[in-house]
Amino acid sequence: MMKIFPKYAAAIALLLSGLSATAGPRTEAVSPDGSLKLTVKLDGQGFAYSISRNGKSVVDLSRLGLTFTDGGFSEGVRAVAVTTRRIDEAYTLPVGKHLECRDFCNETRIVLKNKDGRRIDMVCRAYDDAVAFRYEFPAQDGWNGFSLKEEKWEIRLADDPDGIYMHMPGFINSHEGLYEHGKLSAMDENRLVDMPATFTRADGLNVAVTEAAVRKYAGMMLIRKGGVLQGILSPRLDIPEVAVVVGEFPHKTPWRVFQITPRAGQLLESDILTSLNDPCEIGDVSWLKPGIKSTFSWWNGNMVSDTVQFSPGNNFETNKYYIDFCARNGINLHDIYGYAETPWYKDSNFNFGWPGDDADPSKPIRTLDMQRIGDYAKSQGLDGLHVWVHWLALYRHLEEAFTAFEKWGVKGMMVDFMDRDDQQMIEIQEEILQAAARHHLFIQFHGACKPSGLVRTYPNEFTREGTLNYENLKWNALVTADHDLDIAFTRNLAGPADYHMGGFRSKTRDAFRHQYVNPYVLSTRSHMLGMYIVLENYLNLFCDTPMAYEHKPEFEFMTTLPYGWHEVKVLDGRLRQYLAVARRSGDEWWVGAINNRDPRSIEIDFSFLDKGTEYNMEMYYDGAHSNVDPNFTQHLVQKVDSESRITVPMAMDGGFAIKITK
């Protein structure tokens, strides 16, 4: 699967020897097109970096440093060698926004030593749309491991840009919240900020700040102190006053990443985070089927028709009802989470949020015969089952649970309530991915931190949350179309976003009321269709009831969504206003658009299609009546080609979805 084709266009590993004597205190990494430059400067206080684009500052000189429990690594540091190389490698992503990707950049490695002779390498990469750096700790005599107290990362963004960012209440949280907007200089002091955070300057340049390849390390958030934005690592729970990260050599920190683009859509098209991650580590991936569709009946209250002749609950009949619905409509998986807020497996606590000591997902409750349910799903043509589990209950019984899941026909699971990104939880997540791969299971991390491109290394991670998503509409009115756009330009830059999509009970903002069963959504049905295409996600949840979906043409349209994407193009978009995205799967193209609260029309240019080829286009979009009844859609079928242009109206909180076939 993972074929790497080096195409080095310049001398590789060119040694610029004797740097400390001849090369001076400044070292650079410059992007292949020459536009982006990352400069590292050494002085008596340690080392710092700056970033420029076409000669204009993006990040002013900002301090860096590492502090260990036995001393710092900043003052007195000198560079003893530098190597540079051009990286040009092709790789494939069985699960990703592109099937075929290119890792193309210039890399500079700076070998740093302090007065005690300890060595740390700073590795800098410059891409045409991003720059990144990290530290590598090679094996060395006299220093075999480390206990890190702080990684200093200042971010002095130039020109006081406008930001989209989300404050966090503390290090232990679900990474869910509303985004705030405003000048960097007006950002609250001493409050945690989740990444990615996206900033736009007056000249239109976009800068997104995040991290990549978070492995055996703590996740990082941002905080503004003394007017300066800086990184702060999540502390370990076992030794919070001593260290944030403990490790042995060799070791690598995550990449500190700046996406820098003149067009906002380029942020979403980039493969920078997967390029900065390690190649696939799970061997055979032929069993993976990204883009699958599953029910998620928890969202709708596990409702069944009022004409059924059985008692709804944690029983075979309720699950058969949903399996039959899946079989009629080409939905791959049926989800089992439990009923009435109690898990489907043994747990004396009867509590979703915190399992009892006896909680065990390998042991279903007595009313559920999981083997019978799995066998019935298979007999009806489904791929299998999808289950919910609390991470702690699962982690205590990892191998037993996964062995049982594989036997029952479970294909993947939602792992919930992780609520941390300290080093220990980061390592637990990777353990779960490794074990799941051995049992041919995919993972959907819920109540979890942002992704960091690890889908390249473990492509069985289909999606993860770290978002305030549509589940909230069961108990509040926070998740609006405006929030959807904030998610697209921030959290979704980090990777697939688990969103409980597919609500077919739309209400206008004035008419909306939250309710726990059969919840409403705060956008038009066309917006809901567009979200499946706009947001990067490889597990398509159909969260509403069979009664809400069946015999609706928009639902039939949704069921033809493809299994995974091969290419993405952002056709048009403005931060906080609207976004139109085209994704290709094989010969099919799909276009989705979402709008904020302001009605507008946008033009779709079909020049991304193959020239000289005629296509069939099917579109669902807002009509004039959608502002009053947001469930109302218009349907259009016509021929298009690469010369076509169409103008599509979008209602308040609206959008559209298009399917294009040869």
Kindly describe this structure.
By secondary structure, the chain is of the alpha+beta class. The strands form 7 sheets. It has a 21-stranded antiparallel beta sheet that branches. It has a 6-stranded antiparallel beta sheet with strand order 33-34-35-40-37-38. Strands 23-28-29-30-31 form a 5-stranded parallel beta sheet. α4 runs parallel beside α5 (370-379). The chain is globular.
Total strands: the figure is 40
Q: Classify the beta-strand content into a percent band.
A: 35-45%
Give the end-to-end Cα distance, rounded to a whole number of Å. Answer: 28 Å
**What would you call the shape?**
globular
Radius of gyration: 25 Å
| Regions with little confidence, pLDDT below 50 for 5+ residues | 1-24
The assigned structural class equals alpha+beta
Mean pLDDT across all residues, rounded?
94
Helix content: 10-25%
The oligomeric status of these chains comes to single chain
The major beta sheet can be summarized as: 21 strands, antiparallel
Number of helices: 12
Question: Which labels suit this protein?
Answer:
alpha+beta, 12 helices, globular, 662 residues
List the helices and strands and how they pair.
Blueprint (H helix, E strand, L loop, with lengths): L4 E2 L7 E4 L1 H5 L2 E5 L5 E8 L2 E8 L2 E13 L2 E3 L4 E15 L7 E14 L5 E8 L3 E8 L7 E13 L4 E7 L11 E4 L8 E9 L5 E7 L7 E6 L2 E6 L11 E4 L2 E2 L2 E7 L2 H6 L2 H4 L16 E4 L20 H14 L3 E4 L1 E2 L2 E2 L1 E2 L13 E5 L5 H10 L4 E7 H6 L1 H11 L1 E7 L6 H16 L3 E4 L15 E4 L16 H9 L35 H10 L4 E4 L3 H4 L3 H6 L8 E8 L3 E8 L2 E8 L4 E6 L9 E7 L12 E7 L4 E6 L4 E7 L1
